[in-house]
Amino acid sequence: YVNQVIKKHENTRADKEVDRITHVDTCSAQTGPIFLAYRSQDAINKVVDKYLQTPALYDFTAVDGVAHRVWKISEKADVDAVYRAFQGIDRIYIADGHHRAASAVKVGLKRREETPDYTGEEEFNYFLSVLFPHDELMIMDYNRTVKDLNGLTPDEFMAKVAGIFEVEPSDSPVAPDKKGVFGMYIGGKWYR
To answer: Which DSSP symbol is given to 140?
Structure first.
């Protein structure tokens, strides 16, 4: 992150970081993984595919209905192959967790200053992350819900929105087809 290998595409807000910085600093742990993506690599894929053919170390469905399966890459040759492959990757992208990453890094930098015999190997120099190859990702629509029209009727609300954005009615749900286009369902009607 500090060396710009991990790329961010969002700016973070200081007010949102404060809570996360306090949490990481107090717990001496970052409890929410950063979702990272990288360009798929054959060397990594081969190792992962090998392990996916074996029984999972953990395999369960949580109370929310989400299935979780965990494999451990344990053979030294495989660990070394993955390590070497990642050594050659010069760009990794934050897909989710910009504020968590920025906060963890800020705590790490603070701890470096507080540690006179700092070596770079300390745990605070790293953050918890999960990495996925780009060709296994599906980018889904990012939708927001309006919970309160602030006393406006749906038509009044849409009139205010139309004063800022281009708005047109739609007969069906709208999926974004380019940056800046989104769908809205309000008052029993779809808008684009």
So the answer is: P
φ, ψ for residue 11 (rounded to 5)?
A: -85, 150
DSSP one-letter code for 141: P
pLDDT truncated to tens, each residue of the chain (192 aa)?
998 999 998 888 888 899 999 999 999 988 889 999 999 999 999 999 999 999 999 999 999 999 999 999 999 999 999 999 999 999 999 999 999 999 999 999 999 999 999 999 999 999 999 999 999 998 777 666 778 899 999 889 989 999 998 888 888 887 777 777 777 888 888 888
Going by C-alpha positions, the residue among 27, 13, 48, 68 that lies closest to residue 135 is: 48
Position 150: which residue type?
N
In whole angstroms, what is the distance from residue 178 CA to residue 3 CA?
Answer: 31
Which H or E element spans position 96?
strand 92-96
* Beta strands across the sheet bearing 6-7: 6-7, 92-96, 34-38, 129-133
**Strand (E) or helix (H) holding 83:** helix 76-87
CA distance linking residue 6 with residue 38, whole number of Å: 9
**Strand bridging mode 189-191 / 34-38:** unpaired
Task: State whether residue 43 is helix, strand or coil.
Answer: helix
Distance from C-alpha of 167 to C-alpha of 146, rounded to nearest angstrom = 16
Residues in the chain: 192
